[in-house]
Amino acid sequence: MPTASGIDPLDAALLALLAEEPRPGVLECSRRLGVARGTVQARLDRLRANGVIRSSAPQLDPAALGYPVTAFATLEISQGQGADVRAHLASVPEVLELHTITGQGDMLCRIVARSNADLQRVIDRVVGFDGIVRASTAIALENPVPFRVLPLVEQAAGD
Predict the structure, then answer these.
(1) CA 28, 31, 37, 40 torsion: positive or negative?
(2) Which PANTHER family match (predicted)?
(3) Which of 23, 32, 108, 140 is 20 to 30 Å from 88 at the Cα level?
(4) d(CA 11, CA 2)
(5) What is the mean pLDDT of the chain?
(6) Confidence class of residue 1 from pLDDT cuts 50, 70 and 90?
(7) Shortest CA distance to 52 belongs to which of 17, 98, 15, 3?
(8) ∠ at Cα 151 (61, 14), nearest 5°?
């Protein structure tokens, strides 16, 4: 039975299976989970419709693509320049994510570079826009807990 989050243990098991092996097919999922193919298809359709599953795209590793340096830049922007700054940052391939934030700064972006020296080029491109007043950058040394969602799935299924 679905919980308040709409995720039940079968959904959690299906999502864990897809996270481990993203493209097993509906029939293989039904076999591994011990449920009917139609049940798996209905669950997948509902999870996609509700936005729980947003993509079946492969996870790509920037380091393997030649961008081993990751940094986070906190940006302060000029009043009323948010839309223009967002458009500018979206045009920079090395900007992987952008979040508007509270606290120190207005935006936080995750950027990648080919080297520490190349990071300077990327930062110059990021801040080389009139709407950006100031930037503070921190280089990530390691990523001991990579982006993950499965612990939330397990918690949501137990709520």
Answers:
(1) negative
(2) LEUCINE-RESPONSIVE REGULATORY PROTEIN, TRANSCRIPTIONAL REGULATOR AZLB
(3) 140
(4) 8
(5) 92
(6) very low
(7) 15
(8) 85
